Amino acid sequence: MTEQDRTPMEETEEVADAIEDDVAVGAFVTGGGPDSDNPQFLQPGEEIKIRTGADQPWDPEDLAVAQGRYPTPENIERARRELERDGAAAIERTVP
Hints:
This protein is mostly helical. It has helices spanning 3-6, 13-21, 60-66, 73-86, 88-94. The chain has five helices and no strands.
């Protein structure tokens, strides 16, 4: 093991340069896409399209099952009425 290998990263010249000049530190650059560790930030005024459960067609049977109910005729009818009355909100309450 070399002396440089034992030096804590925050004490390396590379990190000092990054702090001083705002340059990227190679060990910190992942090259990966956005995720929970590497979020992608939006510019002010920039919008993102969020896909929700209601973005796709739902049958009453699908809604009944998503609500944790067996697809009995009574549960399917209740889900049909809920979809008819509330539309996408019925789905959003169950599958956001």
